[in-house]
Design a protein that fits this description.
It is a single chain. The protein is built from 15 helices and 11 strands. A hairpin with a 5-residue loop joins strand 10 and strand 11. The strands form 4 sheets. Strands 3-9-8-5-6 form a 5-stranded mixed β-sheet, with no helix packed on it. Helix content is 45%, strand content 11%. The longest helix is centred in the middle third of the chain and has 19 residues. It is of the alpha+beta class.
Amino acid sequence: MSFGRMGERLIVYKDSTRMMEQPIRSYDDLVKIVSDPAAKVVFAVRDISQAQITLIDLVAKAIDAPPLKYGETRSLNSAFETLRQWWNGLPAIAKVISLYEKDRQDRLSKLKDLMDGFTGSVDRFDFMLEQLPTIYSGGPVGDSLTEKDAETISDAFAEDVALLNSGEQLARGKVAQAICEVYGVKGDMIECENVVSKWYANLNPSQRDPHKCDHEDATYFLARLADQSVNFNTKIVKLLPKDYGFGAVAEWTSFHIKDYAAKLKQGKAEIDKAKPVVYKPDIVEGVYEVHESKEMYIAVPKDATSLIYTLDGSDPRHSDNANKADGKLDLVGLLKDRPNVKVKMRAVDQDGNASDVVSVELVSKERKYEIQVESDIFGEKEATFKCPDDTEGLVTVLKSVISYGVKKRLLSKDRAQKIETLLSDLNKDK
């Protein structure tokens, strides 16, 4: 039943003790009270000052109450109901006060205690104009409330509302951070997705199969990562924590981040442990000077089926330019009339599992001082060569330059022959 502004000021109690309110839901209820000669009800009228009206409106705006029509005044009852709906609509995790910075916890805790009292019969007048302002004013304000006080109180309340509204997002960030630490990095949910996805992609097919894993935490983890029907965020903050028995993050009534991260860490460890060992090619990394007439074979390691390798410095496991050798590989044969070549190789088993990478450089003793011409990323030609440490090596470099000049028609063959004759004399006079 609406009494207008009087309806907010009028309080009906069941008896003179004023301990319990008498609900009036319709005009008939009011008629029964007035016409009953034995009724013990007590009517009380409380005034609402202009400053209190301002406070009611500002509190309602802080929780995104619908805007008022022109000339309309915000009612205490409507503000109270909006406040109740806002609090009931907050996810449980947002009400876990330990989620927030320590310097904010005391006031938030007081607000939570007050808001949790939204059960049973509540004196709305006292709640909105006495109990709630007390949290932000340090004591009762009552009729002494000023317009400035109303603004100060509502501003502080709005700060707490904004913080509580961000609670679920804050909790998600803390979960992402805890998972990142399992992988040895720091970051938010985006970095969390990147590091987990990269780790998952590098697992072999057998490791990624949840049916081949007998560890419960690992099985749940693999099953969720394999599910392409939901995004990563949903997997991490809703589905996987449910699998682990904590419930979705939004539903937490206490902090489970450490326990959640611990389960996920254990699951990851079990998955990593299942990775088969593939022995790397049996050769010491480094530079090898070889004669082109010789052979230098690398065998496929035990339990591996092939070798994969590149000559451009890229990792053969992820390169489009990787070559494959199913049997032993002649490294010297990779020179192919070049003065040197850099080889990166891995051994691979039948399931596609790869060994650690091995890097070696082969240098032709006959051609090591010849220039090597290649194109850079802009298509420009670049020439590189080993710096000679004797006259013979210097002559080889110069002859190589002359040969390039003839090939590119920068020098005639006759002129090149004359220069090479002089170089031969230089080599004789050393």
